[in-house]
Protein 1
Amino acid sequence: MRNLFGEIISFVFIAIVLISAKLFEKAGKEASRKYIHIVLSNWWIIAMVFFDSPIWASIGPITFVFVNFASYKFNLIKSMERDEEEKDGLGTVYYALTLLILSIVLFGPLNRYKNIWGPTIGLAGIAVMGYSDALAAIIGRSVKSPSYTISTTKKTLAGSATMFCTTFIIISGFLAYCSIENWFFKALSISVIDTILEAISIKGTDNLTVPIATVISLLLVI
C-alpha cells in the first residue's frame, strides 16, 4: 500500500511541477525548463520515502522516458521544450533515463552498500544533476564571463565555476553527513570530475554522464 501511495504522490507531484512551470514561461522558455529541471529532481526524496523495490521506483521514470521523448518529438509539454530551432539533443529524455537507471540499480542490487542505503547515494547524484547543472546554465547565461566551445556546445567560465561550487557543496555535505574520512578531498575530486563531464558532454548527455559518474565515484570512495 505504501508503494502504491508513493506512485500516486509521484504523479501528482510531477503534474504540479509541470503545471506550475507555466508561471515561469513569462520569464522565457529557458526559465520554465530550468524550473522543471531543478524541482523535479526532488522526486527522488519521494522515492526514498515510499518505495522499497526497484520495480515500484522505476514506474515513474520509465513512464517519462516515453512521455519526454514524445514531448521532444511533438512539443507536447511546451514549458519543458526549447523552440524547434534551439533544440539540442534529448536532454529531457536522458534526465528520465538516468532516474530509471539509478532506480533499478540503487533500489535493487545496491540497496545496502557498505551499510549506506543505496538510494541515499542516488540522492547526491540526482541533486547534482538537478541543481548543479541547472544553476550552471542559469549563471552561465546571466553573468558575463569568457566562453569556450566544445564540439557544438558553448560553455562559460561562470557556468563551469557554478557547476564546480554547487557540486562541491552537495557532495561534501553528503560525505560529511556519512562521516566519510577525508571527505573534503574526495568531494573536491568528484566535483572536478563532474565539472569536466558537464563541459564535454554534448547534446544533453550531461544528464546521463554527470549523475551516473557521481554515483559511481561515491560508491568508490565511501
Note: The two ends are 33 Å apart (CA to CA).
Protein 2
Amino acid sequence: MTSNRKGHIRITSHPEPGAASNRHPIHWGSPDPAKRGPVIGTVSRPQDRNVIGAHGGTYSLYRALAVSSGALNAQARADFTNTEPVANIGPYPQWGEPGRIVSLDPFGHRVTEYYARQMAEGLDLRPTIAITKARLHLPEIRDAMAKGELRPDGEILKEKGDIAVTKIAIDPVWWLPGLAERFDTTEKALRRTLFEETGGMYPELVTRPDMQVFLPPIGNITAYVMGDVAALAKPRTRITCRVHDECNGSDVFGSDICTCRPYLIHGIEECVRAAQNKGVGLIVYNRKEGRALGEVTKFLVYNARKRQEGGDQAATYFERTECVAGVQDARFQQLMPDVLHWLGITHIERFISMSNMKFDALTNSGISIGERVPIPDGLIPDDANVEMEAKKAAGYYAPDGAPDHEKLERVVGRDLEKF
C-alpha cells in the first residue's frame, strides 16, 4: 500500500477511486504511432501511467536513491532539446506485423516527434531508444592494422584505428501477451510468475489486466552499426552481424576462461570489412551476464568446475552450472530477434556465431542466414578450450555444421539462392 497526496492509503496496484482503469490505452502492434499510443512509465503523474514498472530498467532504482537523498527533484521534467536521433530508422513492415516485436517499443526513438502534442498537453513521456554517433578505440583493431589484416579507408576505419559507428541504446519494453506466446505460456501464468519471482515487487502484474506493457528492471541492448543504418532494411544489402551476450570479465577485463571478447573482436573486425565492401556491419550487445544467471552465479560455477575431482572438464561443464543455478542457460533467445526486426532486417549474409540457439531463434522468426562464421582456432584462449569442447558436445556450438538450406527455406519461405 501507499499514501497519495491527500494522505489516504490505497492498494498500490489499483487506480485512484473514480479514475478510469487506463486513461491512455496502448494498442500494441498498430503500425500507426498515434493509434498505438505512447508508453507512459513516468511517476510524476500517476494517473497517466499505462504501463507496469518504470523507465530506466535497473537504473530506476538509482533514480529512487537520488530522489531519496535529495539530489533529484522527483517532479523534474526532462528537456529533450537536440536529443533527436542522428539516423532515421523505420517505420518498417515488421513494426506492424502481429507478434513480430514484443520486447521493445518500435516508436521509442521518436517519442518527442510522434507524441509532441501529448507532451505539450502535459504528459511526461520518455524515449526508450536513443541513437547517436561514436567511435570505437580497440587495441586489437590497431594490431590488425599493423599486421595488414585491416586497412583504413578514412570513413569506416580511420587512420589511427578508430571505427566510426552509429550507436543505438534500447531499453526493454515488454508486451506481456506477445511475451507469453513466445514462451509458450499464458499471459496469466507469466504475470503471476513475474510477480512471484520478483518477491511481489510489481503487484500490478496480477491485478491490472488493463495494463499489458511492462518495463522490466533489466539491462538494455546496445547496437553498433558500421555503415549506412538505413541500408540494413534493404533486401540486397550484404549484412555481417554478431549478436553478443554480455560477459564483463572477458569483454572488459580480458579474462581468458572463455571466448567472449575474442569472438566479439572477431565480429567487429568482420563488420568493418563488410562496411568497407559496401555492406553493413552490425553488433548487437545484450546485457545477459553469465548466460543471464548473473556474475555471482557465474563465479560460483567457476569455482565448482575447477575444484571438482579431475579438474575442469568439458563433460561436466554444464552439469556444474545446473547444480548451482538449476538451469544450464537462462538467456532463452526467443526475444533476441526483435531488435533485428526493428532495424528492418530480413536476411543476414554472414552471421558471426555458431550458436544453434541464436541461429534457430533468428531463422524461426523469419530472418534468413547465409553463412555462419566460427571463431578462428588461433583466437581461442588455452583456458577456454574446456568451454568450447563442452558447447560442441552439447550442441550449443556447431563449427562444422552448415545450415540446412532446404529446411531453412521451408521455415522462412524464400529461395535463399536469390541472396
Note: The first strand starts at residue 2 and ends at 3.
